Amino acid sequence: MKDIQKSPHLFHIELVNREELEGEYPDFKFRGSGDIRSAKYMHDDTIDTTDKCMVVDWYYKKHEGGRMTLHFIKFCEGNLLYATEQEEGMENGLYAHGRYPYEFDVLFPEKDSPAGFGYVDIMKDAQISIDNMWISFEKNVKWCSEPRYFAKDGSGINAEQFADLRNTIVNYTGDIENIKPIQTAPVGGIATNLYQLKIDELKETSSNRDFSQGGTASGVTAASAIAALQEAGSKTSRDMIKSAYRAFERINILVVELIREFYDEEREFRITGQQGEEFIRYSNENLKPTEETIMGQVSVSSRKPIFDINITSQKSSPFSRIAQNELAKELYGAGLFNPQLTDQALICLEMMDFEGREEIIRKVSQNGAMLQQLQQMQTQIQQMAQVITELTGRDMIGAVSGEAAGEEMPPTTGGGSTDALGNAYRSAKGNTIAERAKTTTRERTAVN
């Protein structure tokens, strides 16, 4: 069965201590010889399984009321520990969504099987070959560094003195030609080349290249080029993690379905984000399917909210941070952060694809909108300055400062009559007030 959700049965087997079962289930009877035997694995340490029981979780599906329901049975050595069909309130099965609570994270799936294999299985054969060749190399080095000899029987050589390297003199009788060294050929170049090729094969298979480890080759010195090569070297790991994202997405869908089914009472949640923390109360009130309603003569079916879940990850590699920093400096140098070039910057950013692009687009749009507001405010200030100048005969800054100080006449610069200046100022101010009063009267008449 390739898709585990299409299987009519699913069994999960586990070894459990007998004392735990007897404490949790008082009616449990230990027989010591179950009908099910599990595979025994080889471990570094000796594991005693004599006092353990084989507990089976049995999930199965049934057609009830025109739909598929999921039921559950837990048994051990002939003891029925739990069954949903015997429990009240379990008429619709264990879960309303009717799916097995298991998800397989498979990188390379096998044919007609829900299981698969990963990069460890691919690299295993090459690693075994490398280990075996290295053991042979070590033996060869030992044989070459520790010479051995052929000694003829009855050669008259004192073997103990000859084997002891601390002896300066070794006694013998007879012919010295009766002992010959054993010649050991060193490992040839073909073997060492094959060993290096196996290492290169393992590096290529596992994508464990020099750039992934932070090393650089000759001729590559630019930080952006090194970061680009490091990002390319981590492509295999990103592809491997994507399968985990897909499995995690399916798990989140099951979580949403469980919230829809069991969150009848409101619960407190703490939501964290860039704007700070927020506490909310949440229940499944808006997640439950609505009942069938009739509008006029038309029957409207029930509504069931469905969610689109997208799983993404933050930057986990320091090399991606370097690439992100280089991109930020390039955008700044191109003037994309200039509020006066907002329209051109938005068009350019929409064409690009990098992590955090939406946040940059939002900030650039805000800066452009802020610049437009400032320009509008400057235009309004200039218009107000013109109106004040027409009313007072002075610029806006002089009029505002004069009214704030409570001046009755403008200051003199010396050499003239202050009375004449004062009379002229009061006359101009009176005429201005009279004109403003007439204007206000005309406006009121027009409104009426």
Number of helices: 11
The biggest beta sheet reads: 4 strands, antiparallel
SS elements, strand count:
12
Class from helix and strand fractions: alpha+beta
Low-confidence parts lasting 5 or more residues at pLDDT below 50?
Answer: 407-422
Our Rg estimate from Cα atoms comes to 44 Å
Assess the beta-strand content as a share of residues.
5-15%
Spatial arrangement of strands, main beta sheet: 1-2-3-4
- Please give the share of residues in helix: 40-55%
| Overall shape | flat
What distance separates the N and C termini?
Answer: 86 Å
What's the overall average pLDDT, rounded?
77
Order of H and E elements: EHEEEEEHEHEHHHEEEEHHHHH
Task: Give a description of the structure.
- The chain is an alpha+beta fold.
- Among the domains are: 4-102, no CATH class; 117-222, no CATH class; 236-300, no CATH class.
- The chain has eleven helices and twelve strands.
- A four-stranded antiparallel β-sheet has the order 1-2-3-4.
- Helix 8 (342-351) packs antiparallel against helix 9 (357-392).
- The longest helix has 36 residues, at 357-392.
- Mean pLDDT is 77; it is low at 407-422.
Essential attributes:
alpha+beta; 44% helix; four-stranded antiparallel β-sheet; 12 strands; 448 residues
Task: Lay out the secondary structure.
Blueprint: E1 9-17, H1 18-24, E2 52-64, E3 67-76, E4 79-83, E5 108-109, E6 116-117, H2 119-145, E7 149-151, H3 159-163, E8 179-181, H4 189-206, H5 223-233, H6 235-262, E9 267-273, E10 276-282, E11 293-295, E12 298-300, H7 318-333, H8 342-351, H9 357-392, H10 396-405, H11 418-447
Antiparallel strand pairs: 1-2, 2-3, 3-4, 5-6, 7-8, 9-10, 11-12
